Each structure stands twice: as C-alpha cells, then as structure tokens.
Amino acid sequence: MSYDGEAARRSWTNDQGTLDGGPQVRMVYVPGGGRLEGLLGARARKVARSLMADHDVVHLHGVWETILRVTAEEAARAEKPYLFTAHGMLGKVHLKTKGLKKRIAVALRYRRLFNGAVALHMANEIEAELSSDVGLTPPMIVSPNGIAFEEIDPLPAQGTFRATFPQVGSRPFILFLSRLHHVKGLDYLADAFKIFCETNDDVDLVVAGPDGGMQQAFEDAIISYGLQSRVHVVGPLYGRDKFAAYADADCFCLPSRHESFAIVLNEALACAVPAVLTKGCNRPDIVEADAGLMVPHDPADIAAALSVVMSDPERRRALGANGRAYSADKLTWAAVARTMIENYRTY
After folding, report:
1. Average pLDDT over residues 80-94
2. Contact assessment for residue 113 and residue 86, using Cβ atoms and an 8 Å cutoff
3. Overall domain count for the chain
C-alpha cells in the first residue's frame, strides 16, 4: 500500500522485474490528496480499513508518514497485529531533526501506536538500543536489511563504468555512493582523501549520488586541496549503472555520521568490494566478517584505513571475497524473509 504517483509506480515496476516473487505481490495505490491528505490521511485510512479483513498481519515500513499512522490506527481498531520497521527513524539522530515536533508527536499519539505494536523491527542491535531510549516497550526483532542478488548477478563487465564516464580514466579508484548529504560525512571524506593523497599518488576517488546539499561544499574543498583532477563527481547512479561502478571500484568508502543499515554497504559486499566505514555506520558485522575496516570519525583514521586496503592487493581480494560470502549467506532477502515469516507466525 502506497500513495500513488509516477515515481512510486516506476520504482515498483523495476522491482517486480528484478525480484523473485515480485509478480506475486499486489500493490495497492492510494490517490494523493495534497496538504489535507498529508495531514489527516482520510483517503489512506479508507483504503487501509478496506484491506484489514483480508490480511492477518500489518507490517509498516517507516514511522512518521501519515499513511503509516492511519494504517496502524486501523489495524488496532480491527484488532490486527501490526509491527513497524523503524529504518533508523527512532534513533537519537533522527529524533533531533525537528526534535520538538517529533517528541510532541510521540507523547501525544505515536507512543501509544508504537507500544500497541506486537514488535518493532530494527536492523541491528545498536538501532534497537537507541530506540529503547524513547521509552518503547514492544519486543525488538533484530534482522538486517536484505539485498537481491538477482539485481547484481552477473555484474556488468569490468570497464563498463569507465566507458560510460571516460573522465574517470584507467587509474584504480575508491568509490563513495550515497546521497551527497552532511550526514554521509563528505567533509570527512574530502579531508581524508587529502591526507591519503600525501602518500598515494596513483589512486582516484569517484563520488556518486544525488546532491543532498553538500555537493558544492565538497567540490570547493577538493578544489582548495588541488585534487580536482583526482576526484570525479558523476551524479546519481541507478540500476545497472550503479553496479557497473561497484564492478570497477577497488574499495568502497562510507564515512557516515549515522546510519541505520545502509543498503550501499550490502551492495558493496555483494559485489566483492572491500569497505572502509566509520563507526556511525553501525555495522560491526562487516568487521566480524572480515569484509572491511571500521574506524572513528577522524580523517586521519579514514585515510589510514584506505591506505591499508589500497596498498595490499592480496588483502583487498580477501576482504572482497569475505564480503561476498557473508552477504550471500546472511544478507539476502530470502534469509531476511525467513526470519520475518517465523515472527509473523507467532502473532
């Protein structure tokens, strides 16, 4: 169930074509209604109410959207078990954004909805601990976000990305792929790459993703460091273009201030690309799988980790192989689905 729109339909059409079982999923679209619908959700409530009799469990992805709130309310009214997947939205960082408004909403309405859920689904133990600070009482299901290998295999041939973006050239490169946003740590990345370049003169940096407000500041920093010939900002990448970038990359770097469970890290591992990430990514599992290096939010530490990975081809291949094996075993949607279905059966 989703609000209707061109982007929503295009996204789901793409998923149906690439995911096993996609054609067996029925999408229900709610007509949009402008600001009033966004506030009250009357159309979403009507559709949600009509669906309750035919369903046994309601699984809500996200927290703050009106369509989710009214669907949870309708599930409670119909005495149907419902659960939320928080997607990081109940952690301290997200609650600080429009913090007063969110805390008022929690106090007046949302805490009752959250605590009426049969469970809250969190992507990792760290997210579960952060969410408990809000005073929520339902059981926590800890299960990662998944990845669909049918989207990835076979990877585009090596060189495909370079052919599409000839400015990248033939040198080895470190890949950043995410929103160009403050939370993603692009300022750390700029400073870290400057330090890295002081002792590494044959590796470039590719930055891919839509501008989330930090692109200009990042590019200004790179120019001030005189590194513009070694940094390639290529804009957003989707579908096979995205996986072509992973196929050509030698290392993936995500220096985020905070993440719930970044899918791009799953993608990098599945593509056998070793990862350098910061502690804010909340992914100790990657270190435990020996698929990457996790460091503090410090440019010098990030640069040192990048140097370790890029200076040792054998170690780089081992990290990549470990990441591929780990993601195939633990991070597929099939593995995630088994966990969720076992939980659904208990409600």
Report:
1. 78
2. no
3. 2
